[in-house]
Design a protein that fits this description.
about 140 residues, mainly alpha, 3 domains, 7 helices
Length: about 140
């Protein structure tokens, strides 16, 4: 901590209010020497990878190039997951995502996927009926 900063803290501690603190610091010639501390940045610097990168898709871009890059990236990830049978065990059985992402075809995963597909089709059917006014 610099001497100027220490002196300013002593003045601020003894001042009655903010106006008196500013007046005292100005009289001592310390007001101009105090620059606000720059906030510290945490983590890595942001990198703009541009369109056509799966990380740009993750950030929210939905252009065709980013969608394609994300599709290719996820296909490669699923291939890695499918090649390792223990990955499905770590992900947990009985979930639709384990069936789809890890290519697990055990009974609990198959049942969960079937239930998910059935619910999806019912939602689509209900939405189509609502849009058409209820006519079949």
């Amino acid at each position: 901590m610099t001497d100027i900063r220490k002196a300013a803290l002593v003045v601020a501690d003894r001042a009655v209010d903010a106006d008196e603190c500013r007046l005292l610091l100005d009289m001592l010639g310390l007001l101009g020497g105090l620059a606000p501390a720059a906030p510290k940045r945490r983590g890595r610097r942001p990198v703009d990878r541009g369109h056509g990168d799966y990380r740009t898709y993750i950030k929210g871009c939905r252009c065709d190039a980013c969608r394609e890059a994300h599709r290719v990236h996820m296909a490669a990830r699923r291939a890695v997951w499918a090649a390792d049978p223990s990955a499905a065990d770590r992900a947990g059985h009985g979930k639709r995502s384990t069936y789809r992402n890890y290519h697990c075809r055990c009974e609990p995963c198959t049942t969960a996927n079937t239930a998910g597909v059935t619910a999806y089709r019912a939602r689509r059917r209900d939405r189509a009926l609502a849009e058409s006014g209820g006519a079949r």
